[in-house]
Design goal:
- This protein has one domain.
- Helices cover 67% and strands 0% of the residues.
- It has helices at residues 3-23, 35-46, 51-60.
Length: 64
């Protein structure tokens, strides 16, 4: 997979994640997640390894 294709997929992931959060009544700010971590997480998800994405989702949850 070319680098440009991968970047396009990452952009689509971000858009889908933001839309999902909005549909659930939440806002989503990914600016505090380092780009390298987000890219590595996205690449992992293409291999059906969702553990890195779950770790990010857990970290994004507000403190209760």
């Amino acid at each position: 997979m070319s680098w440009n294709s991968r970047l396009g997929q990452i952009a689509r992931h971000v858009l889908c994640l933001k839309q999902l959060a909005q549909a659930a009544g939440h806002s989503l700010d990914l600016t505090h997640i380092p780009a390298k971590r987000w890219i590595e997480t996205s690449i992992s998800s293409h291999s059906a390894d969702y553990r890195p994405m779950a770790a990010i989702a857990t970290a994004l949850q507000p403190a209760q």
